[in-house]
Design brief:
Elements: E1 2-6, H1 10-27, H2 32-35, H3 39-42, E2 44-50, E3 53-63, E4 66-74, H4 83-97, E5 102-108, H5 112-117, E6 121-129, E7 132-140
């Protein structure tokens, strides 16, 4: 069973950061100082549990009347199970609850098709972030 929860407790926040560390820092070799940022302080963080086991994380930061979906991470053993898509939809629901009109994200280029299937449109030129190629994407709510 899959559940997506707002990570409000200290324990759930710690689980979010462990998942992000495993995916971005250990697996993708993003420098720690680039992985955690000031947006983490005010963002809504989400934790995915698959059969009660923490397997994914994501966050929603607010910028004016738009949301910025970011730090979407799914552990390797849970990829392909729908965890990532469920996290995106939960973040979108939270953005709508907060009255935001759109969700933006910076997609790693290997994930463009994943986000496109969820209704996001890529725009602008490719850019590098933490040594990884990205594109801007957007979905109106």
């Amino acid at each position: 069973m899959l559940s997506i929860n707002l990570a409000e407790s200290f324990q759930d926040r710690a689980r979010v950061f462990v998942i992000r560390g495993a995916v971005f820092v250990a697996e993708q070799r993003v420098p720690v100082e680039e992985e955690w940022d000031d947006r983490d302080l005010d963002a809504d963080h989400f934790l995915a549990l698959l059969d009660g086991v923490p397997t994914g994380a994501g966050r929603l930061a607010v910028d004016g009347d738009e949301g910025l979906l970011g730090r979407l991470a799914v552990l390797p053993e849970a990829r392909g199970t729908g965890v990532g898509a469920a996290l995106v939809r939960a973040i979108e629901r939270r953005a709508a609850e907060r009255g935001l009109r759109a969700v933006e994200l910076h997609a790693q280029t290997h994930a463009l098709d994943f986000y496109a299937r969820l209704g996001y449109t890529a725009y602008g030129a490719e850019f590098m972030d933490a040594g990884i190629p990205h594109r801007h994407m957007r979905r109106e709510l």
